[in-house]
Amino acid sequence: MDDLLTDFIAETRETLDAIAGELVAWEADPGDRTRLDAIFRFVHTVKGSCGFLDLPRLQRLSHSAEDVLAEVRDGARTPDAALVSAVLAIIDRIGELTDAMESGESLPDGIDSLLIAALQPGEAEAVAGPAQAAPTNAPRVVSRSIRLPVDLLDRMMAGVSDMVLARNELSRALRSSGTDTAADVAFERLSQCVAEVRDAVTRTRMARIDGLFSVLPRMVRDLCSQLGRTVQLDIDGGDVELDREMIEMIRDPLTHIVRNAIDHGIELPEERIAAGKSASGRLRVSARQAGNQILIDAIDDGRGIDADRLVAKALAAGLVTAEQVAGMTLQRKLALIFLPGLTTASSVTEISGRGVGMDVVRANIERIGGMIDLDSRPGHGVRLTLRLPLTLTIIPALIIASGEHNFAVPRSAIEEIVRVGRGDVNLQHIGGAIVAHIRGRSLPVIDLGAFLGSESAEVASRWPVLLVVRSGGGEPFALLVDAVLDHEELVVKPAAPAIMATGIYAGTTLPDNSRPILLFDVAGLAATAGVATASEQIQEEPAAEPDGAVAVPTLLFRDLDGIRRAVRLGLVERIEDVGREQVAETGGLLNLAHQGVIVPLIAGGPLPAAGRLRVLQLGDGQSRIAYAIDVVIDIVDLGTEFTPVAASGPIAGITLLDGDQVELLDAHWLFASRIAPRSERAPTCLIADERDPWARQFLEPVLVAAGYRVLFGDVAATERIDVVIGAVGGSELEVPCIRLRAAAEAGEGESGSIWRYDRASLLDAVAAAARAGRG
Amino acid sequence: MERLYLMVRIAGELVAIDANEVGSVVEIDNITRVPRVAPHIAGLFALRSRVLTVIDSRAALGLGKIEGAVMPEAVVILIDGHSYALLVEAVEDVASAGAPSPLVAKLEPGWARVAIGRLGTERGDILLIDPAQLILGGEEQAAAA
């Protein structure tokens, strides 16, 4: 609530400054309608804000000023000098009270009622004095919040983006010039600072729409108790991020819309019951991103807007002529509600109903390049949709590849990602079109490569991926792409008109690698490719079987590089803390010595220099490897569906968890990278001469490393021997025998023997002999 | 009154652009192609954190495409809040000249659309062109796209 109050104070003060000129001009010419409207809007807005901020004094003042101004607007009163100064006195008073609120002091209450009384005809002279007699001599408190021009933030943002690119360049230069520890440390610090600044600047511009929505429940509750309605409020999409400036601009409109919906839309409980509805009305406010727009819906199930009454009012007010009305569609008639000075409310209440709401709403929305759609069904309710431009909103998107192109697809539009040929997914060509069957559901397909005329369209990926996408309100369809590359948060800017003219792009964006990427407008894509209509003709088949998604317990952890990753719980044998000194690097690979065993260790990031280390012991039933992590986050049930990554590596793919992406470890790759090949029974080598120190010290380690079991001398008859290695001389055993000689050149009687330092031939011969022995 | 003009070569011809309209001259590499756009839109190019729309000036005149150079030069121009990079065959120099005088001859349609007037310089008469018209591209191309 403190935030709201601060906002209110800053906003009121700012508007006061702005209308100061209007006030003087109005005083000079009280008949000036535009000035009157501007002042009227100001007091109306203050009144509205006070209503839910619970500021009764300000509300009383603004409400009475509004009353008088409304009379002037309606022509019921002529603005004379006395009235003008009375209104000005009230506005001054609003300014004083606002200042007082900020400095935390209280102003005496008495003057308020005098000021209000002065608004009545013939009362003005009595109190013209006190308003001027109340100077603001209290020192202003220094405010901890400032308002900045958005241009400045834009410039900061651009500067920081340049800085990030420069840092990346520097990083490449440092890497190629070899390592200099001092420079590396300094660079590391620079990187951190840049990241922090970037984060901060981004946040100065962006805010979750939550901040806007969070005041609604209280407001609705207060309105309901005032008006005797019961309303159930549903709020959805509070996590949509919006430009801060835009949030400020839609705060008032949204407040007005919600007020109107409850005051005029939703009926009293008894009326609702009489109309066959539930006693409690419903109001749904939701935000979502659709293509290149943010949509904010306010849907009520009240009585709707009576278009005929609207027309009658507009005619009576002289805003339209009868001829104009005759040619109007219903939609145009409804749009009359946005004309200044029109309302369908038969009674003026404290909440709304002076006909300022909707014209202010539209003015505010259009100023930020938005639009309002109004849809009303008499008796069933009203749907108001605010369409706001996407410009400068950060949106999560998937980067996809199609031919030689990369594109971004807004995550909000993606329902599902499936791989063709896997499970219940297949493609079918029907009369030149492609239809995807996904678990019994049929969807039209846009083959992106063909649609974009990629040069490499024929060289389609062996494992194409289908994105099931749906634009806001549209029918779902599938997008056939070559691969899903990445997930990124993108700052989208509008593209040049010539590019927007294609209708399929929503804007451009610049990821960190400084190669521009275009963001698709999913609705435009569907319309241009012509799938929007096709989808209606394709019947949905009944699902062949219940959704086969199986949830598998999965361990969620933060890796050493800070990224959230997951591994199937079944693979995890133990989670242990080990000392850093137990880990050693050998030949570029890490090994962990733990409880008398050496276990291969894999780390997804740099290990801490010292101290303790947390590892996951992963087992496949035979072998075990350790995976170093930062911290375990949780154990969750995760579906088996995931999006494979393009390149093979430690990550099998990405999957979604509560809307966030999680990387899934590729256990197969991890094990394959570190486990030496080993058959179910290691072939056994018998070294004939057990007293030969060379065989013990030189030969045995080589054979063991190659995966053989080594025995010496006389062995029990039960032992199965695959190959015998003997010095040149001979052996009577009935297994393949390899003879070694000490000299490089074969001497007399040494034919068929191998020089004992010819490692490659030796191992080849042992392997061949072992295979022969088994065959 | 003498003004500064940037002399560039497009389709083999030396033409002038008002230097006040020119943001900078850059070398372009790594153009990101954009499918399904008008043929004179060569693609996108990132100049630091700005995304420029690259215009093939020659294609915009309907005279084929600019070819050759590995790192072609481009003139950066800001129009209606969007940054464009006009690919040209060469950036020659900056020269001062008086105000443009009206054209006397009938130009080819492509040139006629972008021409503002002619400048009398020491290198002879040079066509002064309007980059904004160049960016729009030919109407016949817009229709074909």
From TrEMBL, chain A:
Where on the tree of life does the source sit, at the highest rank?
Bacteria
Keyword annotations for this protein? Kinase, Phosphoprotein, Transferase, Two-component regulatory system
* Boundaries of every Histidine kinase domain copy: 141-392
Entry EC number(s): 2.7.13.3
Q: Where is the HPt domain?
A: 1-101
The CheW-like domain covers: 394-531
Catalyses: ATP + protein L-histidine = ADP + protein N-phospho-L-histidine
Read off the Pfam families from this record: CheW, H-kinase_dim, HATPase_c, Hpt
Listed PROSITE patterns: CHEW, HIS_KIN, HPT
Phosphohistidine PTM positions read: 44
Q: Per its record, how is this protein called by name?
A: histidine kinase
What organism is listed for this UniProt entry? Answer: Sphingomonas natans
Give the classification, highest ranks: Bacteria, Pseudomonadati, Pseudomonadota, Alphaproteobacteria, Sphingomonadales
UniProtKB/TrEMBL annotation, chain B:
InterPro entries recorded for this chain? Answer: CheW, CheW-like_dom_sf, CheW-lke_dom
Pfam families given for it?
A: CheW
Coiled-coil regions, chain positions: none
> Locate the CheW-like domain: which residues?
2-140
Its domain of life reads: Bacteria
The protein's name? Chemotaxis protein CheW
Organism from which the protein derives: Sphingomonas natans
